[in-house]
C-alpha cells in the first residue's frame, strides 16, 4: 500500500506542472530502450502509456489528474515486496513498478 501511495504522489507531481505549453517528459527514450532490453515490449508499452497519460492530462484540473493517475497505477498487479523484490519493504520507482507490472 505504501508503494502505491508513493507512486501516486510521484505521478501526481509529474502531472501537476503549472500549465506548461508542453507536457513534461516523465520517461526518456533511453529509459524506454533499457526497459525494453531488460523486461520486453510489454514493459516498454506500459512506460509509453504513462507518458501518454501525462501528455493527455497535464493541463486538466488536479482532481482529474489524480483520478487518472490513481486508476493508471492501480492497474499494476499487487505483489508483496517480500515476494517480488525479496525485501521486507522495498520502495520501487514508478519505472520499476511499470517495468515489472507489480
Tell me the series of helices and strands, N- to C-terminal: HHHHHH
Count of distinct strands = 0
Distance between the termini: 12 Å
Largest sheet: none
Low-pLDDT stretches are none
Determine Rg (CA atoms, Å). 14 Å
Count of alpha/pi helices = 6
How much strand? under 5%
Shape: globular
> What percent of residues adopt helix (DSSP H or I)?
55-70%
Please sum up the structure shown.
The chain is mainly alpha-helical and 102 residues long.
Structure report:
By secondary structure, the chain is mostly helical. The chain has one domain. Helix content is 64%, strand content 0%. The protein is built from six helices and no strands. Helix 1 crosses helix 4 and helix 3 packs across helix 6. The mean pLDDT is 87.
Key terms:
single chain, about 100 residues, mainly alpha
Mind sketching the topology for me?
Layout: H1 2-15, H2 29-39, H3 41-57, H4 62-73, H5 81-84, H6 94-100
